[in-house]
Amino acid sequence: MPADILLAASGICKHFGGLAALSDVSISVRRGEIFGLIGPNGAGKTTLFNVLTGLTVPDVGKLTFDGRRIEGLKPHAVAGHGIARTFQNIRLFGSMTTLENVMLGRHLRSNTGVLGAVFRTRAAVAEELAITRRARELLDYCGLAARADDLARDLPYGDQRRLEIARALATDPQLLALDEPAAGMNATETAALKALLERIREDGITLLLIEHDMKLVMGLSHSVAVLDYGEKIAEGEPEAVQRNPRVIEAYLGSGFA
After folding, report:
1. How many CB atoms lie within 10 A of CB 208?
2. pLDDT attached to residue 256
3. Residue 103 phi/psi, 5° resolution?
C-alpha cells in the first residue's frame, strides 16, 4: 500500500439478511486530506462508517489503517489505533458537564489502573490533572471554553455537535470520521463548523465525513466517493464527481443524467 494512504478499504461486503448493504466497496483515504462520502439515503454510507470504526464486522473484505489490518477489531481497539468518530445522532452524556464529556474521551489514552484510581496515587493524580488540562485545551480549540461547566444537555445544538468533535479529538486520532456533522445546523453554525474542520485538517488530522450538505462537502473535500444501493459508483476530485452521469442519475434521476 502506498505510504500516503492512511486508510484503505478493499472489497467490503456486508449483508443484513437478504439485503446487500455494501457490495464490493473499496476506498482509499490519503494522509492529510478531507475525504467526503456521499450518496442518497439508504446508499450504505453509515454501514460503511460502522465497518471502518469496528461497530459492524464485514462479511468479506480487507481494512488497512496506517499499515495494520483492522477488520473485525472491536470499536475501542479501532479507536486505540487512531480512528475516532462522531455519530449522526448526538451521543453525549447529557447529565455530565461539557468538560467531563471531553475528559471521558481522553481516558482512552490514560495509563492509570483501577488501583491507582482508587488509592489516588501520585501518578494517578498527576494524570488526572493532565487529562483535565488537555480537555480544557480542546474545549478552547473548538470554541467551547466558556461552556466548560455547563451540562452537555443544556448546550445549543451546534455546540453539542462541536462538543462531540472535541471529545473525539481527545483520543488523539490520526483520522476523524464524522457522520453528518452539519445535520440540523443553521447557516451560521455550518460556517463555524467548516472553519473548525479546516483547522483540524491543517493541524495534521485526516478527515472522513458523511454529509448531505453538498455545498459543505464539495467545498471541504479533496476527494469524494459516492455510494448508491451499497455500491461505489464514483470516486475522485469533487468537480469530476459532480459531473459524473451516474452520480447525477443517483441524485436527480435518469432524465437529468
Report:
1. 27
2. 44
3. -60, -35
87 falls within a domain: no
Please choose, from the candidates 235, 244, 229, 245, the residue with its C-alpha nearest in 3D space to the C-alpha of residue 40.
Answer: 229
Question: Tens digit of pLDDT for each residue in 131-140?
Answer: 999 999 999 9
4 shares a domain with 74: yes
d(CA 227, CA 12): 12
Q: How far apart are CA 218 and CA 223, in angstroms?
A: 9
Q: What pLDDT, in 10s, does the model give residues 34-60?
A: 999 999 989 999 999 999 999 999 999
Residues 78, 101 share a domain:
no
Mean pLDDT computed over every residue of the chain: 91
Q: Which domain holds residue 163?
A: 96-168
Beta-bridge partner residues of 38: 226
Q: What is the pTM of this model?
A: 0.89
Q: Buried (b) or exposed (e) across 165-184, using 16+ Cβ within 10 A?
A: bbbbbbbebbbbbbbbbbee
Distance between CA atoms of residues 225 and 26, nearest Å: 10
DSSP letter for each residue of 141-166? HTT-GGGTTSBGGGS-HHHHHHHHHH
Residues 115, 234: one domain? no
Residue 89 lies inside a defined structural domain of this protein: no
Please report whether residue 123 resides in a domain: yes
118: pLDDT confidence band, cut at 50, 70 and 90?
A: low
